[in-house]
Write a structure and sequence with these properties.
The structure is a single chain. By secondary structure, the chain is mainly alpha-helical. It has 10 helices and 2 strands; from the N terminus they run αααααααααβαβ. 23% of the residues are buried.
Amino acid sequence: MEMFERDTQTYIDDYLSGEIGEKVFLQNSRPWSNYQQDYRPLIEFAREQDLDVIAANVPRRYAAEINKAGLNALDSLEVHEKKLIASKHVILDDEYKERFIATLKKNLAHSTAMSAGKEMNFELLYAAQCLKDDTMAESILEQFSKDSSKIIVHYNGDFHSRKHLGTAQKLKLLDLQLKIAVISPVYVDRDFQFTEDDLLEGDFLILLREPEKE
């Protein structure tokens, strides 16, 4: 899961096995603010069915360091810290980068930072994004290597895998023989008809109603 970072794996394992309660688990695993309504059901299902849950993401503090100083910031990490990030960092100049920067610019267009004249270093932000993708892809492959007979379901924000880019692309680069299927949401209205672009979004599409504007 993207929603948990590698250094919280022990707390996830202990909660799933019943060694600790939910309060201690949540106090130490840094869950996202929407955990209760969006991700708790997944964790509880895994607990009931005795399934493994992998904290796949890079600890956010390391992504933040890259955002400040670039990949060189990782050179000073201790050995035990380097185990929490991907061993290989791949930064591709491709469609994913274009989509990432375009999305950032759109989201930041009316933000306080932009209105205050604060410059955003999109190259560093993209490098941090790539570190997340690299780390999640490596986490998936490590788990698959333990038992290749199992199907691994990885949950992430759809930007990380839409069009087989991001994490999906990095996973494929690690092992070209892997079979990877991507599930992507597509927001539709009542008159929706599939276009060729829609069909490129993923192998399986979940059609959702456009959220109501407030």
